């Protein structure tokens, strides 16, 4: 027997007819038929049960209870005359003998209907998240999250990994995003930082001799929200392996992820090992992105040599990229609306023309293409019914726009996306360095802790001018699923000599490395093993598995787009006493007065 109840609201079946039972849950709905007859739905975590009040006294009792009050009902189970096959408990109902209010709802008006909360304004949903979570459709995502985390934990343990927790209060370090800082009361003027990731700690664990580490790690980054990224905090399946190569990490992830996706996903198909491996530069050229959605059969082609001199102004400088969509039967209205959306996402205007059923070029910029029709047909292997979308400009911008065209047209035009699957791939061979847009100088392209392919010798060749530093690749990799990056990972740079040389390439010396990463640098001087790792995002995985477009739908208590918890009122003001204890002076009011 459970406290306050003998059964849950999702448990009773036809075999329980005749039993006296006690249920406890929320009063979801009540339909009054007459003074002496009413149907009441009681809901708990497990489901719903119909309760039938058949006396005037019992009907009055229920009418005095507000919706969403928690109640306890004791009564007799009987078979329903009109069964509901869509409901697990739809063959039975309970005739009450006693009803007790356990927790009164004092509000006659709810912020939204519980079972339709997903239709409500997001700000209302977040403010009353505890009510939103009562909706079974919302709750199931959180249940899914629990199941997925449990499955991942079990899989990692089965692969010989130990779950080790790492500190939350740590030192600030430059890792690509803004830190959340925590003032240290006992050390005036100094601050802890919440970890953007357990990166340094897990590498120190490898140096300490722990062979295989993992944790479901909380990470904190002060960055803007977007559909697949929650501001403030997120969780990742953080893992690291000693004496390991890129191939070792790939093997573990290809063992762990597909069964979880196949079992818990909205779609029951997931890529089998080995996942497709795509070099970074090839991904940018072929898909216009380093996060390709392999469910889409469209790809990017370079047509600069053919269309660059066609006389159309935007094509005369830079590069020209094309995406060919076969079997295109959409209207001009569809084209204009779709390409306008692409322009908003990409920040640059796309162009187009199409091939009609007679094989003639029509629409868009076709008048510029007609004089070189034969060359264009041969280059793109065009046929009647094809639609050609184009981007132009600097290489990076043309690729970005083409990538948005692939994703948008692939999803919008029938026949070009096999949606009901999970298509994984690895993006490999990332550039170690790039020219910074603002500095105009050599900078790290991604993770500065990655091992440069070829090790020290490659860096020395670049230093001697024998090779271009931009040609240096890093032993770094991303895992991508359905166009969403789940994680970056790398073979780590565990050699202090190589680490110093890698940083010297971006004008930082040994003293800079020691100052910024003292613990890791010193630890590596004591003999660090080669190691590699990765950290797929839990929130993004569950979002994909649940088939949701927003990551907030799979987080129990998410922040809004501006990193506010409107339910708890965070961030909030604190007392002057708290500030004084921390030796902090708040300048916000002073700034306002100065204005």
TrEMBL record:
Protein name per its UniProtKB record: Aspartate--tRNA ligase
Principal place of residence: cytoplasm
Binding site for ATP: 221-223, 485, 537-540
A GO CC annotation given for this chain: cytoplasm
Subcellular location: Cytoplasm
Annotated Gene3D superfamilies: Bira Bifunctional Protein, Domain 2, GAD-like domain, Nucleic acid-binding proteins
Organism whose genome encodes this protein: Porcincola intestinalis
Annotated catalysed reactions: tRNA(Asp) + L-aspartate + ATP = L-aspartyl-tRNA(Asp) + AMP + diphosphate
Keyword set, alphabetical order: Aminoacyl-tRNA synthetase, ATP-binding, Cytoplasm, Ligase, Nucleotide-binding, Protein biosynthesis
UniProt domain Aminoacyl-transfer RNA synthetases class-II family profile: residue ranges: 148-556
